[in-house]
Amino acid sequence: MTADESKNAPRFGTAVEGRNRFPRPALEEEFDDMIERSNGARLFGLRRTGKSTEARALCARLRLKEPGTPVIEIDAQGMASEATLLVEMLKKIPANAKSLSDRLMTAMTSDSGISQVARDAISKHTGGSADVQAYFGPLMQALERTLTHQDKVVLVIDELPWLCRSILEHDATQGRQRIDLLLASLRRLRDRGVRMLLLGSVGMAALLRQYGLHTEHLNDLGLLEVPPLADDEPADYLQWLVTGSEATGWTDKHSQQCLEECGAHYPAVIHLAFMKLSVGGRAAPLARIEAIFADKVRPDFDAAIYAQFDRRLQLYRQLPDGLSSLLPKLLDAAMRHPQQCAALADLRPLLAEGADDSDLRDALAILREDGFLSVRVPRNAAEQWRPASTLVVAWWAQSH
Q1: What distances in angstroms separate CA 100 from CA 147, 167, 211, 286, one per listed residue?
Q2: How many CB atoms are located within 10 Å of the residue 251 CB?
Q3: Distance from C-alpha of 238 to C-alpha of 110, rounded to nearest angstrom
């Protein structure tokens, strides 16, 4: 490997891996532990926070640590049906697990309860077939009967909420039944030993509540989050960017001022700022940094990062009346004093007449999953709710 090939080459805008990814050892341990010691995890939240990047890194580590483990990665964004998801899962079984692939295919193609047309389509990995869609339930049951804990399958599905919303919006008659079957089938696969990481840039809690679907299908999964960089990580990340881009003239004072102006220390936020401050590979004059943030960086934050908060608030309007009115009130209460925590007792007065704690908990679960709020539960004390990150606080300050 040459020096150029081993050098990090940071990029902005898409999930990255390998040398393009900034290592986060503590976060890696948390992800590894969750997948290795449980059914898996949910990872829903904001775009541009590193979810897909960390999921890819997890898969890469699993392939190194467990060479015989079938690790299947699927991006569900753009898919139109659960049948397509099933076929993609079969197609992506790695070559080193051919015996597993053969067993699964035999189980599905030899099931006389499945139409011959559907069996032929699945054997050819054709997900668009109406017959595969019609027999999705029996096909998934064939998988369930065949898989065992000894197979040690790991399934990572990115943008699962996107697929679910697409089905629900385009099939008003059967959409809810189809999603219930899909989520129940995935749950049963986990019962058969398939470890899963389900990701999405929009949370499932709001979607399930909007359409009156069961939430129990996901309650066996732990909750993972990708937090902002902490402690020395922001400065280390900036230096990593400087080294990778070979920007000239960058000093510790540039890093200090850049981080102070950023407000939120997610890698994407820092990276976007760094690009604006190092145009042409040269560090901007220190005296210009404040103006560059005001004129170029923060307006880009609004388009690339902050706008997703506004889109979430718009989606909340589609929820049942009690929730659609409660969510903005809870958010406003938390943002009014971002350095303080709010207990459940402080938030109950925001409930409308006739609402109860179950509505409050549903609303808080939605805000947590969507990246607005986080919760802390000290021993022998009530839950404490607060803004999930300085990114939320910065968005609120800029837009209100």
Answers
A1: 8, 29, 36, 59
A2: 11
A3: 56
pLDDT digit string (tens) for 302-324?
777 888 889 899 999 999 888 99
Q: Per 3-state DSSP, what percentage of the chain is helix, strand, and coil (rounded to 5)? A: 60, 10, 30
* Per-residue buried b or exposed e for 178-197, using 16+ beta carbons within 10 Å of the residue's own CB: bbebbbebbbbbbeeebbbb
Whether residue 205 contacts residue 366, with contact meaning beta carbons closer than 8 Å, is answered with yes
Number of Cβ within 10 Å of residue 103's Cβ equals 16
Give the separation between CA 167 and CA 172, rounded to whole angstroms: 9
Listed as own residue / partner, the contacts of 333-339 with beta carbons closer than 8 Å and 24 or more positions apart are: 334/372, 334/373, 334/385, 334/386, 334/387, 335/387, 335/392, 335/393, 335/396, 335/400, 338/386, 338/387, 338/393, 338/396
* Residues 282 and 248 sit within 8 Å (Cβ to Cβ): yes
The terminus-to-terminus CA distance of the chain in angstroms comes to: 51
What digits encode the pLDDT tens for the residues 129-156? 688 999 999 999 999 999 999 999 999 9
Amino acid (1-letter code) at residue 70: P
What is the rounded distance in angstroms from the CA atom of residue 380 to the CA atom of residue 394?
32
The answer to whether 178 touches 171, Cβ cutoff 8 Å, is yes
199, 158 in Cβ contact below 8 A? yes
DSSP string for residues in 319-387: S-HHHHHHHHHHHHHHHHSTTS-EEHHHHGGGSPTT--HHHHHHHHHHHHHTTSEEEE--TTS--EEEE
Q: Kindly state the percentage of the chain with pLDDT values over 90.
A: 68
75 SS3 class: strand
pTM for this model (two decimals): 0.91
Q: Are 289 and 257 in contact (CB under 8 A)?
A: yes
8-state DSSP, 199: E
